[in-house]
Design brief:
The structure is a single chain. α1 packs antiparallel against α2. This protein has 2 domains: 146 residues, 2-Layer Sandwich (Fructose-1,6-Bisphosphatase, Chain A, domain 1); 99 residues, 3-Layer(aba) Sandwich (D-Maltodextrin-Binding Protein, domain 2). By secondary structure, it is of the alpha+beta class. 39% of the residues are buried. The longest helix is centred in the first third of the chain and has 22 residues. It contains 7 helices and 13 strands. The strands form 4 sheets. It has a 6-stranded mixed sheet, with helices on both faces. Strands 11-13-12 form a 3-stranded antiparallel sheet. The chain starts with 6 loop residues before the first helix and ends in a 6-residue tail after the last strand. 29% of the residues lie in helices and 26% in strands.
Length: 267
Amino acid sequence: MRPVISEKWMNVVLKAVYTASDEIMRIYNTAFKVEIKPDQSPVTLADRASSQILRDFLLPTDLPIISEEDEIPSFDDRKHYRRLWLVDPLDGTSEFVNRNEEFCICIALVAQGKPKFGLIANPIDKTIIFGGPGMGAYHINYGETDYLNEQFRLGLQPTEQIGLVYSRSHFSPKVLGVVAGIEKVYGNLNVIKKGSALKFFDLVQNNVQFYPRFAPTMEWDIAAGQAIYESIGGEVVDFINFKPLRYNKASLYNPYFIARPKGMKIS
């Protein structure tokens, strides 16, 4: 299977996140102001600056862009998109505001409702995970030019210590039920809390095997991680029907979900 993203587009995405990361970190080291959006979520100059930078880089690809900080087209328009970019210019704004270093940039390429490519960039330690069907998944440092080198390839590996990660800022008591169910199967879990889509770093690096989510997320929060994780044998599925999450829906909210290696039981 051929990768859905060309080398040219890959280089565009990498340059975009390098540039956006520089601006995010510049603002992070200032006394930035925090505003509250109508949905009560925080937004900063870093969110908006990153959004503009990413948009400027991605516009020449001639694909529609759906970004958290931009006006969202109506579904009457969006339903005709064959391919599109889903962008979160600063995932984990609450963590950014709290200065706990758990924030990232997410870019996904979606085709016919499925995530075909994803990239998550960590501006703090300047590392990236990316991948998708036909490409596999990779973990690189910022500035790496030989990014498809086999030494950077990721893969799920058997492990004796099973782990679970959940949201630092959006905890739900339902997570405790999932933990109890998994522990009945696998024994005591290594449980960690983390903000933003950085949780997918832990999933693809075999630090944890489960990520349950029982709080609201948007499509741009998860699409990139799903593309990467699916490329190495993981899945991100609706917690009710256990079908993979779909994108560019009428509602851009995700259902409650769980990410796990395919075949691993939760109870």
